[in-house]
From TrEMBL:
Residues 1-27 form the signal peptide. The keyword Manganese does not apply. This is Haloacid dehalogenase-like hydrolase domain-containing 5. Transmembrane segments: none annotated.
Amino acid sequence: SGSTGCLTSRGWLEFFLCCSLHRLGLGISNVSFDSIHSLQLSVLPSFGFLFDIDGVLVRGKTPIPAAKRAFQKLVNSQGQFLVPVVFVTNAGNCLRQKKADQLSHLLGISQDQVMMSHSPLRMFKRYHEKCVLVSGQGPLLDIAQDLGFCQPITIDTLREKRPLLDAVDHDRRPSILVSAHFCFKPFSVVLFGEPVRWETSLQLIIDVLLTSGYPGNPYGQENYPHIPVLACNMDLMWVAEAQSPRFGHGTFMVCLENIYKKITGKELKYEALMGKPSRLTYQYAEHLIRAQALQRSWEQPILTLYAVGDNLMTDVYGANLYNRYLEKNSRQGSKPRIQAKVSGGRGPAVLSQAAAHCKSVLVCTGVYNPHNEVPLDTRDSITETVFHGHRDFRFDPGLVEPDHIVPDVDAAVDLVFQLENFAPN
Ligand SMILES: [Mg+2]
């Protein structure tokens, strides 16, 4: 980790465009997963889908026509899914239900099928009981509590309680010095998404890290490694209505990492990085896929995951990275077993994994432009231009080559059914 790779200038535009914009929410209504009574083995799936949302199912608020056709193939006459399906978005500034609601034009989707960049935080149970400082915007406390955190405090609350700390904006400095009693000590920091008033968030997070959770105290040399930092959605930029990409949460993280390094001479460390392309996100998605299969009493193991997305640097890179991990584990003959670590464990609690492969399927309805290929010559990519992925990820040309390229999500479903010899109806 810690190294950066490069893209050539040909890939640059592609990459620029690819810097994520998974800002959509999905809303959801409930779908029941009653068992289906099938007489043929071929109707039972041994695979599952991970669908990206923006650029695959919708563009902005507009549904992509192919998505409706695809979904007609994915459900039976009662509207039940025939295959385990999870919707994986890097959005993080709203609740799952809101995202599910945004997909309600397609069909009834349960919020249990929607994965936001922060969803894996549910697994980090050992952080849930203690006070956590949360950074971002939107309904932060609701999101944190929904994920299981019992004592979240926001940057705004911390600022109110410690009015001397936020001194950049002259107009916001306290006029009267009062000493507020502050009884919360953050034991960890969760970065949900980009905040507003970056100087305030940067200052207060640095204060908390350099004082081990006592931001009114002087900085101490001994506070390293710092208290745990968990971060969601490391997308550097995203594409909105403006002509050029906009700052994403990854840009905020670059600031925080570099300020920390400049002040202390040491690396800011992440206890966990979540959201595509991180492995944790795919592990959690697989966990949700398996939970669906279990609920439907589908007894065949889910062996292959198909990740359908429009972004080379998040969807394809993430799926391929996870595939390497799965295949390495299969080669070694040991299934990765990340069983529930109820307390004290460093890792998250998820169902044990069984998939052997994660295949990447790229669609052309979103940011990917088939006429603008990423160069596959490694030397080019090392000598030129810039990698926009996170500091702790390395650019690897092999990881941005999709297993399959199809025009749209409907074609993706057809292809996968064909590959899997799956004939549910
Ligand atoms: Mg997308």
